[in-house]
Specification:
The protein has about 675 residues and is an alpha+beta fold. It has 22 helices and 17 strands. The chain folds into 3 domains: about 350 residues, no CATH class; about 90 residues, no CATH class; about 180 residues, Jelly Rolls. Strand 8 and strand 9 form a beta hairpin. Helix 2 crosses helix 4, helix 8 packs antiparallel against helix 9 and helix 9 runs parallel beside helix 11. It is elongated.
Length: about 675
């Protein structure tokens, strides 16, 4: 049998990395941003102190800080995704080092190749989020852990501390990486599992390991305190950054099973999964010899810990397989070991037949197995680049960018944009992002009383969804948008304004606790009342309301809180409305944010039925759009249909949890309705 060796292995690795770069840069800006990417763009545009102060507890701030730095190159879709491309490419180099350390050069090269062509890894290398950074940090944490504690010397200890912190500050689930290392090293040393491999875990090494964990814990404590305070409960610690849609909850109600993850990692079809599974089990069998047994044990412990933990912890909100993406390298490392074992077997079986090829025989057999995997991944890669998810068959990212461009060209001033899923924040935020300022001004900065006819555009998101109002005549659209179900209708209108108030007023969050309590209702504009939304205030927190009347005609409401950031609203009097008719609302504001209805003061319309009960998630009521004004103010505008069961409306100007330290001013709220009578 020939000695198996690649003299030019470094050149092959360079080629793999170049292919990796090409596959991740190809059509990088071709797909519209998803909602989560728009959130990353919003956070990345802020300064670092804002990012640290407002990041969600389970979504650590590291990637958003990196995004902030990259956006100095340009605030567009491609630049947002560049960091993920970089982490994806570096991950391929890192998994080569990990495979070489655990098994050998051949396994490292095969693992790098598998990650290079992985549709799942490419998908997240082309998304402006933190998942490929988590993969990179996970691989490096594993690498330096092995170097520091299972090899002679402690040269990898600083790298272990740094990369473990990078993983934790990228995504909270990196805690499973450290937990698996703790269990592996603790049990291995206590049960003397390492003695058979000539590895002695001395007391000194254990001291260094626990010292490293202590340093990591101290450095991570600011984020950990936030996690414990805001999210941990007896039932769940897996939560979402935003309110999840019901369809999403049904799709991912529980953590994925190992079989589901393997199906995704292998390209999500039967043939691929069968071949990947064959080499995976070959990798396990090929790791049973003493030389590789310890590496196999570590990879299995690393993989098992998250699933074992979720046998005792039940997540109560959306849970996606991407949260376990740090397990992807383990899968490919074991498959790579299987590829190397199969290569040795092929050489042994066909040694005589291959002898005629002389020195090239090892390259022929070495290429055969990777080419097989490349052929298998052609179909899933083709699906991905055509914007389909290989693991589900559905459209991967809705092409809202093209649709919004079409609406900007086709819609007329005063037209309504309606969503088939009004309970979801995602479509409306995406539409707000892709509407240009000129389009917003054209469509929403209007005087509704000048309208004689108006249109309505309804976005069905997966199904054709006609306009509900019988007064509107459907109009055929000569353009198709996949998975959007866009429909249009129009009707004549007669518009009148319902008077609310002409007062200007401000909502200010103060920090001077010396003001004391006063009675709610003082100095509130005529026709309005200040209301605290108890459902949004955590139990045990109190709210002090302080009202002060400043000079001029402006009315100010000052608010301070002791501990948290309660939610309160300034609500108008009840306005009588006609069910099923169109409405238009606008107010001027200072102090809002791009995601104004999530992170800062904003406006909304609450519709009530004849019994004065609020109508939750009414369809076709439109969504708010923010438009910059020349004088430094902004216009919040919204128009849509009054629900069929509505009899009254209340205009609400609101403060939300998490907003602090800024003054918000509202001016000239106006409400118009279609009233032929």
């Amino acid at each position: 049998m020939w000695k198996i060796r690649f003299k030019n292995i470094n050149y092959l690795l360079v080629i793999i990395i170049l292919v990796t770069l090409f596959l991740r840069l190809y059509d990088l800006g071709g797909k519209s941003l998803a909602y989560d990417e728009i959130y990353e763009m919003f956070m990345g545009k802020k300064d670092i102190s804002y990012i640290i102060g407002h990041v969600h507890p389970l979504h650590s701030p590291l990637n958003q800080i990196i995004t902030h730095c990259f956006l100095s190159l340009g605030k567009n879709d491609v630049v947002l995704r560049l960091p993920s491309v970089l982490w994806g490419v570096l991950s391929v180099g890192a998994i080569y080092l990990m495979g070489k350390l655990l098994f050998g050069k051949k396994e490292g090269l095969f693992a790098a190749f598998l990650l290079c062509i992985s549709p799942y890894h490419i998908r997240y290398s082309q998304e402006g989020r933190m998942y490929t950074l988590l993969v990179l940090a996970a691989i490096l944490s594993m690498y330096f852990f092995w170097q520091s504690f299972l090899k002679t010397g402690k040269k990898g200890l600083p790298g272990y501390i740094i990369t473990s912190l990078l993983a934790l500050y990228t995504q909270f689930f990196a805690v499973f990486i450290l937990l698996s290392q703790l269990i592996f090293l603790g049990l291995g040393s206590s049960l003397s599992l390492f003695a058979g491999w000539g590895i002695k875990i001395t007391r000194k090494k254990l001291i260094f390991f626990f010292a490293a964990l202590l340093i990591i814990l101290i450095a991570y404590s600011p984020q950990l305190v936030s996690i414990i305070r805001h999210t941990l409960s007896a039932k769940s610690f897996a939560v979402c950054t935003v309110a999840a849609e019901e369809s999403a909850l049904k799709q991912y109600p529980q953590p994925p099973s190992p079989g589901k993850l393997f199906w995704i990692y292998s390209g999500a079809n039967g043939t691929n999964s069968a071949v990947y599974a064959t080499f995976f089990f070959l990798g396990i069998l090929g790791s049973l010899p003493k030389t590789y047994r310890l590496a196999l044990l570590y990879l299995l412990v690393y993989s098992a810990i998250p699933f074992v933990c979720f046998l005792f912890i039940t997540p109560t909100t959306i849970f996606s397989p991407r949260y376990f993406i740090f397990l992807l390298p383990v899968c490919y490392l074991l498959i790579a070991r299987g590829m190397a074992a199969a290569w040795i077997g092929v050489n042994a079986i066909f040694s005589k037949k291959l002898a005629s090829f002389g020195k090239y025989n090892r390259y022929i057999t070495a290429c055969f197995i990777p080419v097989l995997f490349l052929i298998l991944d052609v179909k899933p890669l083709s699906l991905y680049y055509r914007n389909y998810a290989p693991w589900s068959g559905r459209v991967l990212k809705t092409d809202l960018r093209s649709m919004v461009g079409f609406l900007g060209r086709s819609a007329q001033p005063g037209d309504a944009f309606l969503l088939a899923r009004p309970e979801s924040e995602m479509p409306r935020l995406t539409l707000n992002y892709y509407l240009t300022e000129d389009q917003k001004k054209k469509l929403f900065e209007i005087e509704p009383q000048s309208l004689n006819e108006t249109g309505a555009w309804r976005i069905g998101f997966g199904r054709q969804a006609p306009i509900h109002s019988p007064d509107f005549t459907p109009v055929k659209i000569n353009q198709d948008f996949k998975n959007l179900g866009l429909s249009f209708a129009k009707a004549p209108v007669t518009v009148k304004e319902l008077a609310i108030t002409n007062s200007n007023f401000a909502v200010d969050r103060g920090e001077d606790y010396g003001w004391g309590d006063t009675t709610a209702g003082n100095n509130i504009p005529d026709g309005w009342e200040l209301r605290q939304d108890d459902s949004q205030t955590p139990p045990g927190y109190s709210l002090d309301l302080i009202k002060e009347d400043y000079s001029g005609d402006n009315k100010f409401v000052k608010v301070t809180d002791h501990v948290s950031h309660p939610h309160f609203t300034l609500a108008s009097r009840m306005l009588p409305v006609s069910p099923g008719k169109r409405y238009w609302f606008s107010t001027r504001i200072k102090g809002s944010e791009d995601f104004f209805y999530l992170f800062s003061p904003g406006s909304k319309i609450v519709f009530l039925d004849s019994d004065l009960n609020p109508i939750s998630h009414p369809h076709d009521t439109g969504f708010p759009v923010k438009i910059a004004q020349a004088d430094g103010w902004e216009l919040l505008a919204q128009n849509g249909f009054i629900p069929s069961s509505a009899r009254y409306a209340r205009i609400v100007l609101y403060e939300v949890n998490g907003w602090e330290g800024k003054i918000s001013m509202f001016s000239r709220p106006r409400f118009f309705i279609d009233s032929p009578d």
